[in-house]
Amino acid sequence: MNALAAIERPVDTVPDTSRLRGFVTAFADLLAATRDEQAILDSGRALLSRLIAADDWLPEAFAQPHPDRYQQYLLHCDSRERFSVVSFVWGPGQSTPIHDHSVWGLVGVLRGIEKVERFRRLPGGALVDQGEELLHEGEVDAVSPRIGDIHRVTNGLADQPSVSIHVYGANIGAVERATYALDGTPKTFISGYANSVIPNLWDRSKTA
Ligand SMILES: [Fe+2]
């Protein structure tokens, strides 16, 4: 047997992670070039749009819905925790609570539809409904305390999962932030992640 063939693994056991690797590398370059939030959101939106333009790279383990609650899977965290990339997976009918982020974030829909309901918090603490929007595959939304940071996200599909890819300006699963009752009462939380292992982006033996 050919020596190389002997050590080759079946192709289908190694997902093509080159797109996600290219994305996180480009995002690290962006953050090295600027700390201006609007520049990060503008250029980051273009990078995320390119990543979600094709749906051939997310390993299945990070697209699995849970029967009872939405899932947040960590795909990558920058070594300096300047940014993190997650997949959000909603089963039919699942929804987040109303929540904030406390850092900038970009949300791109990879599969399905997401309903986004936006809120603004008055100085006295009450929430004001700012309207809602449907995000479709390939569309990107942005949040930050500067441009609007409070929303509730629901799976826009009644009969199948939806999946989105998010980038945040921190290790988002470790950030203390808040959920809100409809009357504006906050409750702090740290989300963590649904997974204990992350995709291996760095095996270059099968991909460019
Ligand atoms: Fe959110």
From TrEMBL:
InterPro entries: CDO_1 (IPR010300), RmlC-like_jellyroll (IPR014710), RmlC_Cupin_sf (IPR011051). Transmembrane segments: none annotated. Keywords: Dioxygenase, Iron, Metal-binding, Oxidoreductase. It comes from the Bacteria. GO terms for molecular function: ferrous iron binding; oxidoreductase activity, acting on single donors with incorporation of molecular oxygen, incorporation of two atoms of oxygen. Gene3D superfamilies: ATP synthase delta/epsilon subunit, C-terminal domain (1.20.5.440), Jelly Rolls (2.60.120.10). The keyword Iron applies. Fe cation binds at H99, H101, H151. CDD domains: cupin_CDO (cd10548). Signal peptide: none annotated. Belongs to the cysteine dioxygenase family. PANTHER family: CYSTEINE DIOXYGENASE (PTHR12918), CYSTEINE DIOXYGENASE TYPE 1 (PTHR12918:SF1). This is Cysteine dioxygenase. It comes from Sphingobium psychrophilum.
